[in-house]
Each structure stands twice: as C-alpha cells, then as structure tokens.
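Table S7 (text form). Paired inputs.
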Amino acid sequence: LMLLSIVPAVIVAVVIAIMSINTSMTNISMEVEENLHSVALSLEEMADFEDLASNQHILDKFKKDLDIDTTLFVGDVREVTTVNGAVGTKADPSIYAKVKAGENYFSSHANVNGEQYFAYYIPVYGADGNFIGMSFAGKPTKTMNAMVIDLVVNTLIMASVILAVVVVLII
C-alpha cells in the first residue's frame, strides 16, 4: 500500500524535473542568443573599419568583462579577434553567404577555428552602404554545456530532496 503512494510521487517528481530542465535549457539558449546579438551589434556600432587594429581594445574588453569572444571580419576574413590563432582565417562559406546577403545569423554549433561556438554574426556596411564584412560574438559550446550540466544536476538534486520529503511524510 505504501508503494502505491510512493509511485505517483516519483512520477510527479520525474515529470517536474524533465519539464524544468527543458524550460531552463530553452531559456538559457534564448538568453545566450540575445546576449551575443547585443554584443555583436555593439561591436559593429563601435568598430572603426578604417583602422582595424585600433579596435583590439574593444574586443579585449568584451572578452574580459563578459567572457564573450568577438571578431571583426573584412569580407570573410577574421582581421581582429579574441579567438586564439584565428586572425587571417575565414568564416564558414554558408554563414558568410547569409550574412553578406544582409541576414543576421545565429548558430548553437558554429565551427570557429576548430572549436564549436554559440555564435552570432551581423553584417557590417560602410558609410556608402556597401558590405564591408561581419561582426561576430560567440561563446564556446563547452562553456554552455557546463552550465546545462550544472542545471541538470541541481534540478535532479532538488527533485530528489522533494521526493525524499514526500516519502518521509507518507511513511
């Protein structure tokens, strides 16, 4: 009889944990996309494409303050970046084509210099309205995965505690 009381509590705890994890993961992804969009847009607005090297301090500040990698592209080539060893490398051709066509581009699995990133790309135009390149903001996927693992572990701990309390109350 006691087992019949515990089974529904276990089912409810599992369902609540799964729903909580799914909702939280969706919210994290949306928040990351919004943050990366804001940084890429800010970088695009602050950048001086006449003197690209003068922008390094701006990129470094985003990295230091927000732990977000940033890059300024001329065409599809990374000219100034906080991604180690990436200066002079090219953007993924499919991403470049979309951004050059005027689209903002977000991906949760962009390959940046051999590493997976949550990435946001924004087209950059000169004063004459012609396409110059792109502004990029990104966070390594492994960083985000660590956040998700922490979330799952904490949710499972909370569900276990709640379940334990319910079981103690039933017994």
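Next pair, protein 2 of 2.
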Amino acid sequence: VATRKGLLGWHRDVTGGWQPNAAPAFLGDPVSQVLHDPRDGALYAALNLGHFGCKLHRSDDGGSRWQELAAPAYPVKPDGDDDPVPWDLKLIWSLAAGGPEQPGVLWAGTIPGGLFRSEDRGANWRLVESLWQLGILRIAIGVAVAAISSCIGGMSAERSVDGNRARVMGI
C-alpha cells in the first residue's frame, strides 16, 4: 500500500485475514505509486521526495531489498520555447506492466502529463513524444490486449494495440 509515510506490505494469514508485513519500506517517505508485476513477481515503488525529486525502486524478493532505478526524464526544454509547462518530472502517478507477451515492458504516467515506456524492467525510459507534443490528459493501459488508450486535450481519443507504434483516432 503506497502512502505518504512509506510503503506498507500486507499478506493473508492462515485464516484468510490480512496482516501487516514485519517492516514497512521507505519509512517516512511519500510513495506515490506501487506496482506488483504479475509476469515476474517484481515490485516497483515510485517515491516523491520533494527537493530530492522523484525516485523509482524495484524489489525482486518481495520487498526485502530494493534497488534504485533511473526515473523517467524529460528532454531538455529548447531555448526560447514558450511552453508554460515545465519539462521536468514532478510525480510518477501511474505505473503499469505490459502484457504477458511483453516481458520487461513497463509504462509510467507522470506529471507533467507524459507517458514513458521501459523495455528493460525500468532500467531505461523513453518518453512517448507523440503524446507529449499533443498534450495528453488521461491514459489507460489495457494489459489483457496490451492496448493504450489516451485522451488528448479533451477533444479526441486514440488507441494503440502495438506498443504505441501506430494509433487509431476516434475510439
């Protein structure tokens, strides 16, 4: 469970009830998102550390040990660009695993409104620039069919079923 005070783990006991895990992770740090990847069992935690920025961590052992990963990063804003939106990561507000046939693929929705894709379990991230340039508002990842749907500027919708290599307008 992601909270403003850390990451709390829970498990079912022998009676079917819920019990807290022995120790929380990232105690005292705001955890903005947590993801359990059903494909390989990895846990991902996104943290918002204010002055120290956004951080991303992965655990391959159920949360006992965590490895820091590179957080998604925006390109440098071009000189003279009058875009009022800052081009730096403020928050990872959404994490999703790719489909079962996409090992290692992760998606991260961020503030400002950007979608990032990783193909190596979060070690490296690539901004989906076509959506960034249009100004995305909402993203839904359909893992069952590995589809991406996005709402662009509140005016149109797009859908991709091939990892955002092609999109269909007007869904």
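Residues 129-134 form the longest helix (6 residues).
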